[in-house]
Amino acid sequence: MRNLLEKSAFGVCDYLGDKIGIASSRVRLYFIYLSFVAFGSPVIFYLFLAFWINLRTYIRNKKSLIWE
Fold first, then answer.
1. pLDDT higher than 90, residue 21
2. Residue 21 · residue 15 · CB < 8 Å
């Protein structure tokens, strides 16, 4: 169940955890806590990051196809 959830969650927490240097499970907890405290506004930040990460991946894949 956990692996299915992590695959469908866009990889934002993994990305942030890798960049910051902490476990992705800890980042997930922070998002959950902040969502309760800030009445859901971190969800907008999360969706923006998901869009940005997918866009970067798409651009990098296109560049690698062009250079091959």
1. yes
2. no
